Amino acid sequence: MVSKTRHKESTKVSRAVKKAVGSYQRDQDMLIQILLDLQSMFGWLSEEVLTEVSEQLDVPVTRVYQIASYYKAFSLVPTGRYIVKVCLGTACQVRGAPQLLNVVSAMLKMKPSETSADMRFTLETVNCLGCCAMGPVIAVDGVYHSKPSASDLRTIFEAAK
Amino acid sequence: MSNKRLCSASDLETLRTEILAKRNPDKPIVTVCTGTACQAYGSLEVFRRFADELKKQGSRGSVVEAKATGCHGFCEQGPVVVIFPQEICYVRVKLEDVPEIVSTTLAGDGVIERLLYKDPVTGERIAKAPDIPFYKNQLRIVFGNNKYIDPGDIDDYIALGGYSALSKALFLMTPEQVLEEIKRSGLRGRGGGGFPTGVKWEATRNGSRGLKYVIVNCDEGDPGAYMDRSIMEGNPHAVLEGLTIGAYAIGSQEGFIYVRQEYPIAYQNTIQAVRQAEEYGFLAKGILGSGFDFGVTIHRGAGAFVSGESTALMSAIEGKVGEPRMKYIHTAVSGIKGRPSCLNNVETWANVSVIINRGAEWFNSIGTKGSKGSKIFSLVGKVNNTGLVEVPMGMTLRQLVYDIGGGIPKGKRFKAVQTGGPSGGVIPERCLDTPIDFDELTKLGSMMGSGGMVVMDEDTCMVDTARYFVNFCCEESCGQCIPCREGLRMLREILTDICEGKGKEGDIEAIEDIAEVMEYASLCALGSTAANPALTTLKYFRDEYEAHIKEKRCPARACKALTAYYIDPAKCTACMICRKSCPTEAICGDKSIIHWIEQEKCIKCNACFEVCPPRFSAVRRISGEPLPPPPAPGTRVVREKKR
Amino acid sequence: MPMTITLQIDGKEVKATKGMTVLESAREAGIEIPTLCYHEKLEPYGVCRICSVEVEKKGKTRIVASCGFPVEQGLVVRTRSPRIDKIRKVIIELVAPTTMVDGEVAGEIKKIGNEYGADIHRFESRFRAKPTRCILCGRCVRYCDEVIGEHAIGFMGRGIDRRAAFFPEKARACLTCQACFNLCPTGKIPSETDFVVFDGFSVDDYLAGEL
Fold this sequence. Notes:
Chain B has 24 helices and 19 strands. By secondary structure, chain B is an alpha/beta fold.
């Protein structure tokens, strides 16, 4: 079968993986840390990266895939340049987070976990950003915005190019 | 920091004296809270502006220092700026306010009234932080130091007496004596379980000889709880010191700090703190010249609430997927790679040095018979003063919500306080005089949990609250065991249906059956406690469930599928305010023509309800009754002529 | 010399050796405890929870998975009780919708369901996901890991999105091995692989959202 998730330069991948694995002295216990670094570097974890990690760290590929598919921090598909996170934590929930999500969803024309066709945005919901006094909160590319109005949101999304 | 490696207890004291000698207690310092929440309000820019302005204005002989600290806890009022030595507290400080603060309060002796905290009841402006009721009623044993410390500078911690407990433990106490002190203090785990810390340490110590591990659990995942984040960000050395003392008592040379991935600032600050501690020799072979070796490795989480469960966390540290395991042998006896492992929460570790320095008797004097010391809570939701508060065990819930929290905003009625996160439960008004105590809260059907305390008012639907927590646990379940995975799936469907008016006879019994199976047959505590929010809301608010199921009515008028928005023609003065605020243009009418909501277009966003001026209060939420018929189109407002 | 332990199961005195589990000692004594995810060649996993029993020690009773709970001197075990029976009944009721074929359940699930009076249609109308026919007992994954050593099948995802998926490159060995086929309590593996291919069951299918 043809995998749609391939990097073009496999030596680039194997070199990046070698560096990541090496920075933890090829310690198998650090598998999750290694994947976090690679996720950060590539923005997602391709089949090639995961297979390379399995080989270089000498752990079964099933274990690598299990970890990569289990955690929210990892993406097995390419993600957008700007991650938009809407907090649905308890405090934000009682302060209108679901309505905020509706508005953001409508504006970006996406449902949570989707990525826009132009790869600009990925929309996610998270369970608590930890700024409960400011709720409802939305984070765009790591920058937090408290109680954004519709026009605030338009400004934020337009600025994200 | 100096580049000395400390090789003895006296080296540490010499360093401490040197640091203090360079610090003038009367020197003005402007501290800016740069915890994650205040940073989200722009406090980092405020701090940088202070640093710039102080260079420019050259106030008071150019000896004013600007310091970026961790979280102060007064999150509702951020960005918070506290000026020492007077402890003048400015709240909601904006970038534009900085030059005025510098010229008025730093260069001069004045105080800017409009930036002071205003008591919502008395209207009084309060200048000094310790006088503000929010702070005054707290007992900030663990959290209080945050406002003095720049987490990037270990010398700040040392100046406050940091690492003196470690020194005392290593040189004036045996490991057994340290263990005894913690046992006698009565300290119980602050992460949720409330297990006696001394007993856990002892079990680990008595585990098989050889490698032993100590672990900091900073995987704080209860939505709405961020105490551990603020400690780890703002005072990481308090945790490191406690961990090292624990390792000494237990006989461990290797520690792990597990920080959740969603806390990047805490992670960075911990890395930096570890590095600085290593440079001084607080984490080393032969710490302070003693025979005790100890070092730590930091692990990041990757976004899974269940990874905070102890067997799951230990799995993750082994590089395996962070899911719980069936274990009938305590991890203190057999944990990471089968070795004795002692896992404690951030706040638990942060209490250790305080206990060693001030003694078990002192710690015992605070709190109740079964719950000693203080506890940090994240007080959030429908309460005036949201933020992090530290109170002695034994304070009542009512005191916490009203004296410190300042009561419910907008004159709304208190309904319940939810404690213990997704494993906990709701506590109604009639139980508000319960003292904060592990066992007392458990008796009510809830639990202390990690410290999340969410206040709910009359507008909060209890069925929706249960649905919310069940949904959370359903998404976070590892999915291994049938009771939790399938139980939560079904509970979510049932509760969602009830909230959407699709509840049926037998649903409450189904919820109770599933909850019983989850409680007794789940593999881990996520599953066995996930039904608690449903069970406690049923226990205290069963009438709400019955209204939803039998009458298709939501008493709180919060469930959208059961609520309609209606403008009372008798009260509407056609002022146009709601028309302008409606995001879907669902309100028809005009100036002097009665407004009317077109139900098909209404998305129940609540905007019209919020903006209708209180003197008219024309917008009503109706649930469980038929909507009155609309007025004839074009009906004019009848205005009473003023006499 | 392995230490002999005496415990009581359903009122009967049972002798066991230290290190055994309650399930093992019960089976040796001829006492029936139903299981789904247990396999004598595999490390106990403890996820189906069907083997739950009451254990009483020093006057305190708790409910544990007998496949993992170690025997202890003087332990009192009850393999049946109103609560235990309810647990087994409701577990079957909860998995019935996803394992049903043409409105029926089969094999061990049917047997246990009948024994405990499960209403397999109880939660049918509220099960709105696509049935997977998998109860995630993990016998396939664990057998391949622990006994065969091929690591050709693994778990992906979390919670109700958790799936077992084959890894095609590895699965080439599967065509001759087929060890997991007869381990599957719902019959999913042999029926969906047609004893031949693994299309529709692989990690690529998982990533495409088709599992």
